[in-house]
């Protein structure tokens, strides 16, 4: 088992894995916002993907090839955003007690309790905020092309969340996808300062954090 692997380097206490589930808020409502059913990303964001593709085709009259290329570019761009967010936002190094609390709320809770099934996909309150920010970023930088680019980006996010849940919830498959399991579990149980990619290890190879 990966959990039993002798660690290559010391894991900080606030990232050290353990069993069980954390209570993040005493308030029941706030606590409920930190827990998410694994199908939530599909339910919330698949209609968004369909709407933007339909809008690009029927309202903006984009050619099928143009939509396809922009969609794939958006999905590929998500993998870079995923890597950068995970490495520099989720894994910022806290220097103060307040920083530790913030880091725990953002991502430390997942590292401490990596098998908590209700905290394996991003809560909608967080993902929707990020989605709105990214949408306006793409809308103002890409113009109308954002309508075909954004659904690809969102589809990449859906694939990321589903992959992340599968890695923590199911046994590694006996095919090439097994590499994703090894890569991400290495991040949790051996080297939390490396292997930041979840849906692909590509950017870890490029930025030498493999």
Order of helices and strands: HHHHHHHH
Radius of gyration: 18 Å
How far apart the termini lie comes to 20 Å
- Looking at how many chains there are and whether they match, the oligomeric state comes to single chain
Relative strand content: under 5%
Briefly note the structural class of the backbone: mainly alpha
What is the count of distinct domains?
1
Helix content: 55-70%
Kindly report the average pLDDT value: 91
Low-confidence stretches: 1-8
What is the count of DSSP helices, taking H or I runs of 4+ residues?
8
Q: Can you count the beta strands?
A: 0
Largest sheet composition: none
Shape: globular
Keywords:
210 residues, mainly alpha, 0% strand, disordered N terminus
Structural account:
The protein is mostly helical and 210 residues long. The protein has one domain (2-206). The protein is built from eight helices and no strands. The chain has helices at 28-33, 40-59, 64-90, 97-112, 124-142, 146-169, 178-189, 202-206. Helix 3 (64-90) packs across helix 6 (146-169). The longest helix has 27 residues, at 64-90. Residues 1-8 have low confidence and may be disordered. Keywords: Endoplasmic reticulum, Fatty acid biosynthesis, Fatty acid metabolism, Lipid biosynthesis, Lipid metabolism, Membrane, Metal-binding, Oxidoreductase, Transmembrane, Transmembrane helix, Zinc. It is found in: Endoplasmic reticulum membrane. Its cofactor is Zn(2+). GO terms for molecular function: fatty acid 2-hydroxylase activity; iron ion binding. Its main location: endoplasmic reticulum.
């Amino acid at each position: 088992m990966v959990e039993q692997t002798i660690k290559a380097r010391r894991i900080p206490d606030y990232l050290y894995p353990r069993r069980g589930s954390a209570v993040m808020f005493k308030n029941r409502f706030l606590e409920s916002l930190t827990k998410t059913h694994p199908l939530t990303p599909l339910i919330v964001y698949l209609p968004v993907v369909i709407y933007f593709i339909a809008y690009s085709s029927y309202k903006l009259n984009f050619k099928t090839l143009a939509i396809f290329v922009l969609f794939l570019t958006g999905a590929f761009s998500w993998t870079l955003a995923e890597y950068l967010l995970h490495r520099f936002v989720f894994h910022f190094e806290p220097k103060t007690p307040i920083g530790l609390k913030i880091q725990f709320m953002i991502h430390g809770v997942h590292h401490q309790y990596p098998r908590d099934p209700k905290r394996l996909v991003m809560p909608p309150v967080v993902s929707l905020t990020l989605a709105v920010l990214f949408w306006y970023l793409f809308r103002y930088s890409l113009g109308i092309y954002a309508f075909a680019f954004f659904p690809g980006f969102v589809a990449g996010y859906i694939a990321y969340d589903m992959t992340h849940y599968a890695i923590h919830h199911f046994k590694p498959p006996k095919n090439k996808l097994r590499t994703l399991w090894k890569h991400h579990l290495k991040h949790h149980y051996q080297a939390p300062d490396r292997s930041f990619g979840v849906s692909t290890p590509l950017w870890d190879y490029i930025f030498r954090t493999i």
